[in-house]
Amino acid sequence: MRRAFLLWLSALVPTLLWAHPEWKEASCIGVIDEKDTFALTVKFDVPSFLLGQLPKDAPIKELDALMFTPGRLAGSVEPGRQQFLAGLRLEADGKPVAWTIVSFPSAEQILAQSARQGEADRYPVMMNAKLTATIPAGTQKLVLRFPDALGTVFTNLRKGMDFQTVMAVSKNEPGEFQIGDGPAPADPQTLFTLLADGFGHVLPDGWDHCLFMLAMFLGAASLRQALGRSLVFTLGHSLTLSAVALGWVGNPGPWIEPFIALTIGLGGLMAFRGTATNRQMLIVPAVFGLVHGLGFAAAVSDRLKEWDNGSIVRILVGFNVGVELAQMAVIFTSAALLWAILRTGLAETKVRRSLCLAVALIGFAVMAWRVAGLAGLV
Asked: What is the mean pLDDT of the chain?
């Protein structure tokens, strides 16, 4: 593994050194008309985006391969278009709003623009993507997120003659644009929507919850014991989420993500070894739940600051009940799948240990990947 990593690194370093020095930040102009139609024009370096890299990081060798390998550019445009649409997020007073792409650069247009710039200046190829959305009438605040591969986007947003904001929107700090004078309308969250949010945090979004619940189930002596561990995990999860929401604990930031993956690896390893007592296996999900709660708080930090103290308790209770219901569904589903597998005649101990080992390896691998990401190695 070490030898393979060194070979990969030795191949990567020269490529990075060949990255072209001429690059430009993406820019954007947004206009909201009297009919609440939001027209957005984003100007960005298209080839580097299609490679999934920032213009300053895209090596010329890779750009040339994209542009001049027959068929490769044409085959990259549609996936890039879909990636652009998926990464461009808009919220109006906290509610998501869908975008429609009006135009996106074609392969022929990209090649023609690069050719017009000449051989010495063929990169970057700055071109426009145009989109439109309809925002609800009376919207007071917009939150705009751009695809990560664009990096920082200099944005000029205007509504009529009354509101205009210019700011640099980075991938880590979404842009917030005030387009109205009044307060944002209250979020009409019902018990059902809160339960649905909590359930969706696990299924389908929370693969980390699912893997950890699988480890807790596989290491339990009974279904009842597994459900007890799930409940303890949720209590720990709710404690740290509540602490961050109430301002008692600061936002943990991205460093918490490797620790979440570590808890999955350790949970799978402990279940694989099978040496922990039931009391210890109640303490473990409680402690690991505290870590997962911090991770979720970091992921929704932009929403936490909008929760007023009067609604925090209602939101957290409803949300965490939804989380627990989803975790119970994961445990019951795991039990049903295990029963089906054992019907084939395989030994239960062997199946449980194999699955535990798989969970542990996934957890530790994801932890290593996230650490490398924070260190800027990937």
From this structure: 81
